Amino acid sequence: MQKKSFRNYSALQLATLCPAVPGTKEAFIIQQILPGKAFVLVVPIHTAVEEPDALRRMAGSLRVSWVLALETLEHEKAKLI
Questions:
Q1: Stated pTM of the model
Q2: How far is CA 23 from the centre of its chain?
Q3: What is 64-77 written as a DSSP string?
């Protein structure tokens, strides 16, 4: 498996959709970012069909959330821990 640089993910912003499966509109949504340290992914109860605005979906009830911690490595790289 090829390692990916953290730089590839530096453009992530709040409410960015991260597809759970390629080609789907249902996705994890980035709710919070602590640059170089962690980010929070959530899955809202409301679907994209029911509420297209990701910010509004995040404000409602959530099915699940994850905090993904990052460990900073050399050369501007990080790994999930």
A1: 0.69
A2: 16
A3: EEEEEEEEE-STT-
Q: 29-52: per-residue pLDDT in tens?
A: 899 988 878 889 999 888 888 888
Residue pair 52/27 in contact by the 8 Å Cβ criterion? no
> Which residue range is the domain that position 58 belongs to?
6-80
Per the structure block, which two tokens stand in for 6? 């953290």
Looking at the chain, how many residues does it have?
Answer: 81
Classify residue 34: in a domain, yes or no. Answer: yes
Residue 16 has pLDDT above 80, yes or no: yes
The answer to whether residue 48 is domain-embedded is: yes
> Which tokens sit at 44?
């809202």
Residue 18 forms part of a structural domain: yes
